[in-house]
Each structure stands twice: as structure tokens, then as C-alpha cells.
Amino acid sequence: MLIHIQNENVSAAIDTLGAELVSFKGDDGFEHIWQGDKKYWGGHAPVLFPIVGALRDGRTRINGAWYEMGRHGFARRQEFAVVEQREDAVSLRIEATEETKKQYPFDFAFTVSYILTGSSITTQFKVENTGEEPLPFCVGGHPGFNLPVEADEVFEDYDIVFEKPETQKCPEIGMQSCLIDYDMIHFTLDDEDVIPLEHNLFYRDALVFSDLESTCVSLRSRKSGRGVMMEFSDFPMLGIWSAANDGPYVALEPWTGCATAVSESDEFTEKRGMRTLAPGETEELAYTVFVL
């Protein structure tokens, strides 16, 4: 089921399946969210929980037992219940079930909220530990953005622009295993704040950034200045991705953690970026996308 929200500047649509943002339009009617053309990539803006990325061989060890879980977790395949709605905002929620416990043996509640303010949309994640043992988790966003915005522009007219100059070494991601190898470097930045967009940036999967100086990143046209900006200060990692098939979109992905690293064990609690909530604790994290 689709839920529609709007204000005087922007509108959005959210699918209750996966609590996924499937539309975000400015006042000119341009659709900023990738519309899921399966020729390139069938998603829009998946919600990633309780893992980000892939596990080694699709499984992990929790409390001495093995559990299987698909890439990016199970939330994106769950039907969410609408728990609050107004004209310019909506909140959707899932809770642990016997089925989720076959993959992730914990009691939890997970709420995804979308709030429109001015020409922006905020995505807020709320994770609650409703059980009696510590709750480990990772969470992230995966919104894909249509490019170009203007009809007379092309993909290569756009830049990835960071708020501040960055020095980074982006690790390799295994094309078959989908694991991250921090000993192999995919892409580097040396005190730079602009990456000119080219499809070949993504031929070996995502660019993965950690501990950036910037809390904002833009996809912005050098010609028109159009595009989007994301504020992601709650998240220590950022993935930037497009499928390796020259699709006309780019995903900006704020993460708390990432795929299993080649150097890591299969213990769930030892995954890079894993957060843990004590019984009764709650954590909220949010990112905001602005129309440029």
C-alpha cells in the first residue's frame, strides 16, 4: 500500500512493503527517486536493517548458533504497519515475530518515519530493544536518485560534492562474495571535495567512505546546479553506488555499519560498526535529503 504525504514545496510516496520511499518530487514535479527499472536496478530506496551489506556466505553466528540472513537484512521485505500519519509525515513500524527470529533471534521494534520540511525529506530510524538481552544491530538508508535532472544534461555533467575536503581510501568489495577487503583500495581522495561522476566509478561496486569530515554530500550539476543534497551526521559511514550497468541514477547510502570484512570473523557482534542496545533502550538516527 502506498502512503502519500506532501507540503507546499514537495511530495512523497512511501510503500508499506519495506517502509520504502518510492517517490520524492519537488514543486516542479521532477521525480528525484529512482523508479526501479529492473534493466538497471529494481529498487527505489530500501531500508537496511538489522544489517547493512552482506554476511560471509549469507550467514552469521549469534549466541553460538548459526543464522542465515540476506544482503541488507530483512526489513525491506517486511510489511510495515502505519502507526502515525499526518499530511506531511508518516511513521511505519515492524516488531519481532517468530519468522524474524529465525534470522535474527532478538525482540525488537523498528520504526521508520518520513517528515517533509520545506524542500526536504527526513528519514528517521528508531530501534527499540523490547527484549531481555542486549540487541546488536546495524541500520542504513539506500535511496537512489534520478540523474540527470534537466533534459539537456547527461550523467557526466554531475559531481559528487562533499561539504569539506576529504582524504579517504575506499576499500574493495568482492564482486562475488560482496565482502569488504580493507587491504585492497578501490578509490582514493587526497584532500579533495569533488568527484566528477562517471559510470566506471561503480564498475567494482560501491565507494565506501568512513569517518568523513563532511556531514553533507551533494549530487549536483555543474551546468544547472540542480540535484540533491544529503545531511547524514548521525551516520559514521557513507556508501555511494550505482549498478555496474550504466544506469541513470546514483544512490547515497548513510550507514552505521557495513558488509562483513574479509578480515572479520562471522560473529555477529564483532561486525564493523555494530551497535548494541541494552534491554529497554532506544536509539534514533536520521538523514535528510534537500532538493537543489
Quaternary structure type:
single chain
Write down the overall mean pLDDT. Answer: 97
Label the CATH architecture. Distorted Sandwich
Q: Which stretches are low in confidence, meaning pLDDT under 50 for 5 or more residues running?
A: none
Major beta sheet summary: 9 strands, antiparallel
Overall form? globular
Q: What is the strand arrangement across the widest sheet?
A: 7-8-9-10-22-18-17-14-15
Q: Which structural class should the secondary elements be placed in?
A: mainly beta
The N- and C-terminal alpha carbons lie at a distance of 29 Å
The CATH class is identified as Mainly Beta
Number of strands: 22
N-to-C SSE string, H for helix and E for strand: EEEEEEEEEEEEEEEEEEEEEE
CATH topology tier name: Beta-galactosidase, Chain A, domain 5
| Helical residues, percent | under 10%
Radius of gyration, taken over Cα atoms and rounded to an integer in Å: 18 Å
Kindly estimate the percentage of residues that lie in beta strands according to DSSP.
over 45%
Number of helices: 0
* Total domain modules: 1
Protein name: Aldose 1-epimerase family protein
InterPro entries: Aldose_1/G6P_1-epimerase, Gal_mutarotase_sf_dom, GH-type_carb-bd, LacX
Pfam families: Aldose_epim (PF01263)
Organism: Anaeromassilibacillus senegalensis
